[in-house]
Amino acid sequence: MSRVAVFPGSFDPMTNAHLDVARRAAVLFDRLVVGVLNNPKKAPLFSIDERVAQIRDSVAEFGANVEVAAFDGLTVDFARRNGADFIVRGLRAVSDFEAELQMAHTNRKLQRGVDTVFLMSALEFGYLSSTLAKELAQFGGEIAGMVPPPVAVALAARFPQTG
Description:
This protein is α/β, with parallel strands linked by helices. The protein has a single domain (about 5-125), classed as Rossmann fold, CATH 3.40.50. The chain has 6 helices and 5 strands. The chain has helices spanning about 15-30, 50-60, 75-80, 95-110, 130-140, 150-160, and strands at about 5-10, 30-35, 65-70, 85-90, 115-120. Strands 3-2-1-4-5 form a 5-stranded parallel sheet, sandwiched between helices. Helix 2 (about 50-60) runs antiparallel to helix 6 (about 150-160). The radius of gyration is 15 Å and the shape is globular. The relative contact order is 0.20.
């Protein structure tokens, strides 16, 4: 029996913290599906197609067991459609844990056969968020080392003054 996990998020944009979690999850599971959430309540900087393409380029070196797909709706439904028994979530700090714990319990209530696995972000990325990366790029800050190269290129195209 293969171990399948989904790693969901809006990834607007994907950061190196997200990439680190995906890299480690790809080793833990036989198949990892990075699920890019199309959330109608948010106004993303990048379209769903742009985010999927950026992430595909960013995880290409991880191997054939890593896939990227867009989804909308409930994460547990996405997990079920992909035959996943696990949801991977990254934690940066204790402050992330409360909301993630609530979501994990909710998902478990909705789909008993799906467990959430938490991976701590690497120490060097504990401060990093998509919001921070976007704001730095927007105001000309240095983003090297914060986002994967395909995302850095896309941010530079969107905000030409990006460092």
